[in-house]
Amino acid sequence: MTTETLRTTVAARRQTGITWARVRPVVIHVVLAGSALVMLYPVIWMVVSSLRPGNEIFRDPGILVKDLKIENYRVGWNALTEPFTRYLLNSAVVVLGAILGNLVSCSMAAYAFARLEFTAKRLWFAIMLLSIMLPIHVVIVPQYILFSRAGWINTFLPLVVPKLLATDAFFVFLMVQFIRGIPRELDEAARIDGCGRAGIFLRVILPLMVPALATTAIFTFIWTWNDFFSQLIYLTDPKMYTVPVALRSFVDATTSTSWGSMFAMSVVSLVPVFLAFLLGQRFLIKGIATTGIK
């Protein structure tokens, strides 16, 4: 191979490398965009179906709206025994109670496991972790009997009160991991300044736990807002229904189902979850990244 041929080959390879370096980001973005479209297609189809007449929803699997029908939202809002505002407020009450309960109880339990010394601490921590693997279907019957005897059925108490007892072990573990990353020298400095255990927790640990607290609040909001099983078990009065249970009321096995109205209210129910994730995404990523959970 002559010197001129070798130079030509090297130049061609360099040109190919430069061309691929320019094309590669475009290819990657096209693949990612296509994958995102495939994953988001069911949501997009639901939004489009909420704007279609009922007789056209299942005829066309596409996402193009030929006959825009905003009437589905007005009809769906007043289709049940109560306006949909009532169900949104019921869900808001349950969600706010669950968030407050988890933030208070789980942070206190996590501080105890991470900083305090007490008898059988490792054993209790292991039991707490084991409770994460316990399905809710295993405990729902004894819980229902307990709450029924307490007269709490058809109230929001069974959905809120357990949160005040740090029953969500996942959040306790998340906060324990976060607190362990806080230097103990800060505790010692606060103790020298005259702070007790409560003062250290409230003035030192708690302000530094904002990312973990925000992560807990966001996850609690999403999980509680979308919870259907527990709310269906404990809430029997239509006036007490939350959003997931109310959406189930649109489906009737004996009469025709108003799919357009149901999809319209499903879109409405997704808006708070979307906003919570959108506004708290930064805290969510930071909270998970700083707790040692990979």
From TrEMBL:
Membrane topology: Multi-pass membrane protein
Domain of life: Bacteria
Membrane-crossing segments per the record: 26-48, 87-111, 123-147, 159-179, 200-225, 259-279
Subcellular localization, as worded in the UniProt entry: Cell membrane
Swiss-Prot/TrEMBL keywords: Cell membrane, Membrane, Transmembrane, Transmembrane helix, Transport
InterPro entries tied to this protein: MetI-like, MetI-like_sf
Domain ABC transmembrane type-1: 88-280
Pfam families: BPD_transp_1 (PF00528)
PANTHER family: ABC TRANSPORTER PERMEASE PROTEIN MG189-RELATED-RELATED (PTHR43744), ABC TRANSPORTER PERMEASE PROTEIN YESQ-RELATED (PTHR43744:SF6)
Similarity section: Belongs to the binding-protein-dependent transport system permease family.
Protein name per the record: Carbohydrate ABC transporter permease
Organism: Kribbella koreensis
